Amino acid sequence: xxxxxxxxxxxxxxxxxxxxxxxxxxxxxxxxxxxxxxxxxxxxxxxxxxxxxxxxxxxxxxxxxxxxxxxxxxxxxxxxxxxxxxxxxxxxxxxxxxxxxxxxxxxxxxxxxxxxxxxxxxxxxxxxxxxxxxxxxxxxxxxxxxxxxxxxxxxxxxxxxxxxxxxxxxxxxxxxxxxxxxxxxxxxxxxxxxxxxxxxxxxxxxxxxxxxxxxxxxxxxxxxxxxxxxxxxxxxxxxxxxxxxxxxxxxxxxxxxxxxxxxxxxxxxxxxxxxxxxxxxxxx
Length: 284
What we know:
By secondary structure, this protein is an alpha/beta fold. It folds into 2 domains: 5-123, Response regulator (Rossmann fold, 3-Layer(aba) Sandwich); 155-280, Muramoyl-pentapeptide Carboxypeptidase, domain 2. It is built from 9 helices and 9 strands. A hairpin with a 3-residue loop joins strand 6 (215-218) and strand 7 (222-227). This is Response regulator receiver protein. One of its GO terms (molecular function) is phosphorelay response regulator activity.
């Protein structure tokens, strides 16, 4: 992974400058140098680094292990600890965060460079595997939808609709939520930037529908389906619309945002043309 984005967490200015100079010489981009855990989290949220090089002992209430643990909950990063502290208790705490390396100070350039290259290589492999899983899950959802079409076009009985939609919602959640949590940084902790999260969600759900075969146009707080996957068949069978409604409402619930989804369908001169509009509740 050439030109990796790397965040340095080090409260000794001279040491931090030396590390930054080495990284830039090796072709990497240093996205920031943090002297505290709190500052590291703030920089990471803004820059989304590929790798974090973290000293463990820092000034303030949060040490390097705490910072790495917090950042890794928000995004998929690799971490290498650079520390003079090699005691067993510190190592046990660091190990819980699943770092890519643990380098004892003082270290030489070859040791640091080797650990960085291994960490970035493993991250690249992991990302490729996750992308492959995402494609397989998306294909599974698409296959579920398309394989259901013959049954739906034959006029599913009303009493069977509820059970079918519950099964579809369960299948959709099992396959799509891992990708959703990872890409929107919702693996463990809720986000407190509601407006930004909503915008990222609109992009995510628009891309999902597009990948499923719909023609989609995203907007600031809504997205439009300009061409339906099922074409004119959706006019005669509302179960198709209910499946789309289930995907939008369920995925919006995953965000943890307080609000609602409004669905208008068969708009304009060329039905079906649907609009999904997201409204956040006013803060009290």
